[in-house]
Design brief:
The chain is 32% helix and 22% strand.
Amino acid sequence: MRICGIKLTHDGAVALVEDGQLVFCLEQEKRDNNRRYQAIDHLESVVSALAEHGLDPRDVDQFVIDGWDGDLESQFQVLSGAGPITLKGAPYVERHAEGLLTSLDGSGLMLGGRLFSYRSYPHVTGHVTSAYCTSPFAKTEQPAFCLVWDGCIFPRLYYVERRGARFLECLFPVIGHVYAAAGHHFGPYKRAGRGDWDLGVAGKLMAYIALGSVDEDIVAVFQELYQERFAGDTELASHYRADINSAEPLLARVHDFFEASALRLRDQAPEDVLASFHLFLERLLVSEMATAVERHAHLSGARNLCIAGGCGLNIKWNSALREAGLFDAVWVPPFPNDSGSAIGAACSAMVVQDGFVPLDWSVYSGPALLDGQLPSGWNSEPCSMRELASILASNKPVIFLTGRAELGPRALGGRSILAAATSPEMKDYLNDVKLREHFRPVAPICLEDRAPEIFSPGTPDPYMLFDHQTRTEWRDKVPAVVHLDGSARLQTISRTSEHKVAELLIEYEKLTGIPLLCNTSANHHGRGFFPGAAAACRWGQIEHIWSDGVLLTKIPETELSPGDRALTLV
């Protein structure tokens, strides 16, 4: 059974699941140096994705389109070979508590000159199915709660077991976009108006709040305004909750909330305001989750939690939920945001057929490296892992490209810039070449068995989704990966992993005694990962590029011939 999941809107992607195994997931932003959050606006992208894996649309048994905005249904305006067409889809949220797996059946999906029928499940359904089916709980047939908190919805709690899933409750009346909206009213990303929405602000704020300190008086202001405008029995709060299915009015009231906050907090430092707001939300999330778990204590089975939706990328909230003692285990997939929605769409159809069974998957299921004409001005030679480790040990960064790209928004060693973490200047250098603010952290990638020695808790974290503190005795040894508050966005990798980055870390450890490197994504500013070495060469900001056994080294400008210099400008 071949199921093709399609996410048409932002974070567009095409995924194929065959007999319970993820064959591929191709995110649009990771193809052809596309912009971040790229949508699928032409159905030829679906045909091309299948063709790259030797398939024709006729080889697919079922197509599934992820749902989107709408109370009863959504609509998508896309291009096909025949011109513009309109496709209908399921709504964002299921219509009733037992309706998570209720589909909208559609027709008119034009692929390769042929029409195909399809199904569409609510957008939140894909989050639930992708989170649970990729989890360790699915493998052991254990039930789990599933928290879905996306940008334009309140945090929703579900209960999942082998035979089905159902909606339990909304935890509290705050949309996920509230975090990014805070950044539009305070701090370095403040805007004069309410437009020009930036999806990347929320992630940047996680780094920025390390500059600030929590002030309980500021927290109290947010608590008071939350009750007045969102949660209480006031007229303002009632009107806000009445618009639960309308994204624009909800967001407008969120902006009103922050404008009222700004009047009360005009004398406070913005970094303190944002740090305090972060903690206010974290406390609210943990306390309301605790109340909900107690309320649903009658549900049988282990206390497990899956986290999905864009807010699942907030590593501090994930850690707070894990450390609260409410759950035996917490799982966050590497694609909790919409980058996993195509996988979720395919999983939804799989679940309808087989129940909530485990998906056989690998995080390295993205696009293969793209072959391309290398620009002149680069030397090429074979390079072993030991030789590459020596380059890194000499404090030179390397673009590291190998195999298929990782899924989700974070570089996990397949499309990374790696560097020694022993110099405090390396973080600033990497942020400079990436055009990032200097308060942004650079993540460590570390051999799993040595992570507890360097970080607390240092538990396995293969997808960079929890918060870790750098142990005091290591902060001066690896300063480039230590954030302003001593934390680190750690990625661990097993010493026995077959991935090339594990082999490199082992060789680097042999040379230096240090089992970790700096790891940041290999991409243009505002774009997805480099699709291949040629794109990395054209970027030209890093002297060394390693691509599946071949080292490309930029020839210094003084050594180029006049002809070479002209070619490098092309």
